[in-house]
Amino acid sequence: MIKETALGLGAALIVILIQQGYNVMPWFFMVGLGFVLYYLIGSKGLNKNFSMTDNSNKKVERINFEGIGGHASAKKELLEALEFICNPHHVMEMGIRPLKGILLVGPPGTGKTLLAKAAASYTGSVFLTASGSEFIEVYAGVGAQRVRQIFNQARDKAKKENKNSAIIFIDEIEILGGKRGTHGSHLEYDQTLNQLLVEMDGINYHEEIKVLVVGATNRSELLDPALVRPGRFDRIVNIDLPDLEGREQILNLHIRNKPLDADVDIKVVARETFGFSGAHLENVANEAAILAMREKRELIKQKDFLEAVDKVMMGEKMDRKPDKEEIWRIAVHETGHAIISEFVRPGSVSSVTTSSRGKALGYMRQSPDREFHLYTRDYLEGQICILLGGSVAEEEILGSKSTGSSSDFQQIIDLSKKLISSGLSPLGVVSLNDIPPDILHEVITKTIEKEEARVKEIIGCYKKFIIEVAQHLIAREKISGEKFRQTLQKYKKRVKISS
Known about the structure:
This protein has 499 residues and is of the alpha/beta class. The chain folds into four domains: 2-46; 51-238, P-loop containing nucleotide triphosphate hydrolases (Rossmann fold), CATH 3.40.50; 244-314, Helicase, Ruva Protein, domain 3 (Orthogonal Bundle), CATH 1.10.8.60; 324-490, Methane Monooxygenase Hydroxylase, Chain G, domain 1 (Up-down Bundle), CATH 1.20.58.760. The chain is built from 20 helices and nine strands. It has helices spanning 2-19, 25-46, 72-81, 83-86, 88-93, 112-123, 142-160, 173-176, 188-201, 225-228, 244-254, 266-272, 278-294, 302-314, 324-344, 377-398, 406-421, 437-461, 463-476, 481-490; strands spanning 51-54, 101-105, 126-131, 165-171, 210-217, 233-238, 349-353, 363-366, 478-480. A six-stranded mixed β-sheet has the order 1-3-4-5-2-6, with helices on both faces. A three-stranded antiparallel β-sheet has the order 8-7-9. Strand 3, helix 7 and strand 4 (165-171) form a beta-alpha-beta unit. The chain is elongated and about 95 Å long.
């Protein structure tokens, strides 16, 4: 009622002023400008409300640490850091300084946000979440205001819910906490970071409401040193890609509500998903169920999971079909990769296919027998051999190479440079940036020529085998690693590989 009355009086005043001969256009301009500024800075800026997840609400899915597979060491470190919220008196008796901040560092999709939500559930805290990009605006002072706001909101919400702790989760914190002085004349970034530093310094252990800041990033090298020092982000928890055991745990969590056929072996699926994050593994389980539903089956089979692995890794099958000559070249190329892979690391081939997925016209997928954390010279040289196998097979059997090997060659150059930078080349321990270009080119060329000679020796002895497998691929599009090895045994002969 008051709003309508004010609008009516304003309109009447404008009519009277116009009748009296006053120019009201400047007033219209000023009022319009005020509304624009209020919208841009007020409703979209200073009054920005951050999302809050209250884990006591039954409508919100409760996440606990038992429901997060893998990451045993990361969960242990995080649980230790949460003790000052759960058992503050015991912590004080031990003379332990409670932590103000925990930084979760790891690749995308590894579960950093899930761990932060589990921490809120574990401690019974109010949970506020925001992205680093939400703090940054073109208007000076807006980011700093938002930082103050989220800390005040955390304390207010905790009091309102009768809780004694709050967790503030900031995803993509490298946007908010990037190194100062790297943004040119845009001081808004530095002001926002300075305010976050002040707020974290102001966290008092003896306050009624205990506040813990949890940050997440996959670019920790971009963070300002003042932010990651002890007293602010006291503990840095690395959330790496899961190992074989972790992948099996994650897959088991995601298949609990799915009807599985008796032939499903999750251990095999875990081996096939080397390098997958938790998000990738969830997608594998979901895509496997979709494939089964697409074929109108009530149970998910092992073949659905293996097909889902290919789909998640490479993308959906493409409608485009190369002509017969191109398909034959692709089949020879991928078989060349596979046979060298079996000689370098027996049992490593998972499947070979000429199906087009994403940007790949065909591919050979490997499943390593163990997880590698360090790479020896023999391993890297073996990888170069495998990458060379496709182009050498094309040249030996078809008489020429093709542009299909361009991505292989780029990986070969990267591996050769890794050999040099790791001190595993004839140059010894050197700085890659200080090597003259001609010497670098010479060492890379000699490395490739040496491995290419090994590959040609193997390919030359197994031309008939490659042709037979390629013909199988033309007819059926795919061959499993087990079938490939069985066929290889028929042609097995002694091949002396040059050292």
